[in-house]
Amino acid sequence: MRRRARPFMQLTVLTAVLLLAGCAVGPDYHKPDVELPVTWQLDTPWRQSTPDDALAKGPWWERFGDAKLNQLQQQALAGNQTLAVASARLLQARASANATNAGLFPQVGVGTRAGRLRISGDRPLTNYNAPNYATVQSDFALGLNASYEVDLFGRVARNVEGAAASAQQSAADLENTRLLLTAELASSYFNLRELDVELDVLSRSIELQRKALELATSRHDLGATSGLDVAQQQALLDTTLTQVDVLRKQRSQFEHAIATLTGTPAPLFSLPSALVPMMPPAVPLGVPSDLLERRPDIAAAERAMAAANAQIGVATAAFYPSIMIAPSYGVDSNSMTTLFNAPSVLWSLGVSATQTLFDGGRIRAGVNFSQGGYAAAVANYRRVVLTAMQEVEDGITGVAALDRAYAQAQAAIVSARRVLDIANSRYEGGVATYLDVITAQQSLLNSERQAAQLMGQRMLTSVFLVKALGGDWDGTKVAMK
Predict the structure, then answer these.
(1) Band of the pLDDT at 36, cuts 50, 70, 90?
(2) pLDDT category, 90, cuts 50, 70, 90?
(3) DSSP secondary structure string for all residues of 226-284
(4) Residue 234 Cα distances to 215, 248, 424, angstroms
(5) What is the dihedral of CA 82, 84, 89, 92, to 10 degrees?
(6) Average pLDDT of the chain, as a whole number
(7) For the chain, first and last CA: distance in Å?
(8) Theoretical Cys-Cys bridge with 148: which of 106, 176, 205, 311, CB 3.0 to 4.6 Å?
(9) Residues 214-236: pLDDT tens digits?
(10) What is the C-alpha to C-alpha distance for residues 325 and 21, in angstroms, rounded to an integer?
(11) Exposed, middle or buried by CB within 10 Å (0-12, 13-18, 19+), for 446?
(12) How far is Cα 32 from Cα 55, in angstroms, rounded to an integer?
């Protein structure tokens, strides 16, 4: 009866071992739910789109149609040092994941030894009936050894899972760094171009004001007007010239920022002034849930959760035994001629297991620490999602409002020019004072500068919205109007 029961018991033990081998302690990872609205609060003329996370978030800046911006972006992608740091960290994360994956396989090594040694004749006796003698002999050995951790409780598997998630997080961080870099460069570039437009407005205003000063001086010399008109016009011209220096200072700062972003020393970089057409592209929008697929910072936060969850399993596995298999095989002889003879062969095969019996709560504290890290990662993930939805809503409402404001600013310029023409005619006819002309000139200058600023804000808000949406979109043509 006992002989029949023995195979059954062996089969039972083998089955239990196989079942344990497929078990990994700790919670399995499931992405937490985030409460999302059904759609964006769209203001006309927005329409919906269907972005796909599988599509490459490529050179979105090309949609602005500015060749110089395209060139600067390529320089930044090639020479920016922040991006180089993120790329190096991705290489490190992938190397770390590969090193962790090695724990799934046996570690095999080979060792050799060759030496000449003398054994003391006065060494302690191991047998009182066998006297010791001093001997001089050679020792030659060659061995192959292996070690393998039997991952019954999933410690190695959870480590591999966490390392893979960390590598994916680093890849998402690199994409997010690239997105932030290109967005910052585009913002600095459009700020600079907006200042070029303002400086052009001031240049034309200065030319107009100088002609008006010549007219006022001529009329004063003829005795038609008092010196007050000349003084007022000179004061307006001096104020405008002062604004030119202020704008040039601001422009130089953006120029230096662009140099740094492209990896160029600021003293060696210059960007000539140019009046380029600035028209924001039509940006299609998706439902809020698409943000979970498009934005690299959300992807990075989600991968951080997976890595933190895996660490709970690693910490929990410390409660269970660690089992190692370490076989070895080799030869050992006192002569090279007999090293590979059968009597020189030596081998070992065994299993070792260690189990912590008491640690003063260290393992439990490690599990609690990992659980706290996972809770923090979940909270950070939800924060990033909420921030992303806020940024998109800000971009949507901002673009729509700025479009309306820019259209109104263009109408204000037309009205200001009409007022200036009327004021000049009335002044030349002696009906109005020169203060009316100065007021009309200042009003036109303010209106044109406001329109330039609104044009720049439209471009910046479009860049901000593209960044908030996670980069470029698919090739579907979706009109804004």
Answers:
(1) low
(2) very high
(3) -HHHHHHHHHHHHHHHHHHHHHHHHHHHHHHHHHHHTT--GGG-----------PPP--
(4) 12, 22, 17
(5) -160
(6) 84
(7) 88
(8) 106
(9) 888 887 888 777 788 889 889 98
(10) 14
(11) middle
(12) 24
d(CA 226, CA 174): 68
Torsions phi, psi for 330 (to 5 deg): -175, -170
pLDDT in tens, 112-142: 999 999 888 888 877 778 778 888 989 999 9
Q: Among 91, 74, 120, which residue's Cα sits nearest to residue 263?
A: 74
Q: How far apart are CA 436 and CA 426, in angstroms?
A: 9
Among residues 54, 32, 71, 84, the alpha carbon closest in space to that of 470 is found at 54
Contact 142, 115 (CB under 8 A): no
108: left (phi over 0), alpha (psi -120 to 50) or beta: beta
Place of tokens 């991705």: 90
List of residues 6+ apart from 269 with CB closer than 8 A = 255, 256, 258, 259, 262
Tokens describing residue 381: 């993930």
Mean pLDDT of 81-108: 91
Residue 145, phi-psi category: left (phi > 0), alpha (psi -120 to 50), beta (remainder): beta
- What is the arithmetic mean of pLDDT over 24-37? 69
At which residue do the structure tokens 């967005």 appear? Answer: 183
Q: Mean per-residue pLDDT for 389-418?
A: 90
φ, ψ for residue 135 (rounded to 5)? -135, 150
- Which pLDDT tens digit goes with each residue over 450-479? 999 999 999 999 999 888 888 876 544 333
Q: Span 51-64, mean pLDDT?
A: 67
In the chain, the amino acid numbered 179 is L
Do 161 and 310 form a contact (C-beta atoms < 8 A)? yes
The tokens describing 131, both together, are 């006297």
Q: What is the pLDDT of residue 155?
A: 87
Question: Is the CB of residue 45 less than 8 Å from the CB of residue 480?
Answer: yes
Longest dimension (CA), the chain: 141
Tokens of residue 119, six digits: 């054994």
pLDDT of residue 15: 42
Distances (CA, A) of 256 to 1, 73, 74, 326, 453: 91, 15, 17, 62, 21
Q: What angle do CA 179, 183, 184 make, to 5 degrees?
A: 120
